[in-house]
Amino acid sequence: MDVDINLDVRSEAIIMADPDDMEIVFNNLLSNAVKYNRMGGKAEITIDSSDTDMIVVFTDSGIGILPEDIENLFAEFVRIKSEKTKNISGSGLGLSIVKKVIELYKGTIKVESTPDVGSIFTVRLPKKLINIPE
Ligand SMILES: Nc1ncnc2c1ncn2[C@@H]1O[C@H](COP(=O)(O)OP(=O)(O)O)[C@@H](O)[C@H]1O
Ligand SMILES: [Mg+2]
Residue 13's pLDDT is what? Predict the structure, then answer.
């Protein structure tokens, strides 16, 4: 897929986390932003920081997701079946693992999406973590 990827670090955000855990989150969300995009489309990652959280936003110009599909997206083995996704392969496990990892860190993930316009996945991870997951 021919997709332009852009990274925008708006403010320094330092968190205590296992790099392998963060790799799972970044890798899955960025690869979805590319996989479910269109030829010549865009994927953007912005990193920002509030008083309490690191905020990472993955925006794509892809196929989007219908409102009724969003609620099941993070369950295991869920893949949306449509004319637009029928030639795209995957296990349907990525987002379920991403969500589990984020929740270990007491963070949140939310999705906003418009079919044929694109999707925005927003991850918030607390900067101060009392119990670091093993
Ligand atoms: N950025 C996205 N744009 C459109 N649909 C998406 C996006 N990310 C995920 N999806 C949909 O959610 C489903 C589940 O995603 P995921 O758990 O990563 O599984 P996989 O990518 O292996 O199919 C995908 O099959 C796809 O239908
Ligand atoms: Mg995936």
Answer: 86
- Counting from 1 in the atom list of ligand 1, the atom nearest the Cα of 58 is 1
Number of independent structural domains in the chain: 1
Q: How far is the CA of 121 from the centre of ligand 2 (A)?
A: 13
Determine the distance from the C-alpha atom of residue 73 to the mean position of all C-alpha atoms in its chain, rounded to a whole number.
Answer: 11
**In the predicted model, is pLDDT for residue 111 greater than 70?**
yes
Partners of residue 59 on adjacent β-strands: 44, 120
Structural domain boundaries, residue 70: 3-126
User: Whole-model pTM?
Assistant: 0.96
| Ligand of minimum distance to the alpha carbon of 121 | 1
Q: Which residues line ligand 1 (CB under 6 A)?
A: 28, 32-33, 36, 60, 62-65, 73, 78-80, 85, 90-96, 119
With respect to residue 62, please indicate whether it lies within any of the assigned structural domains.
Answer: yes
CA dihedral 48→63→38→56, nearest 10 degrees, is 10
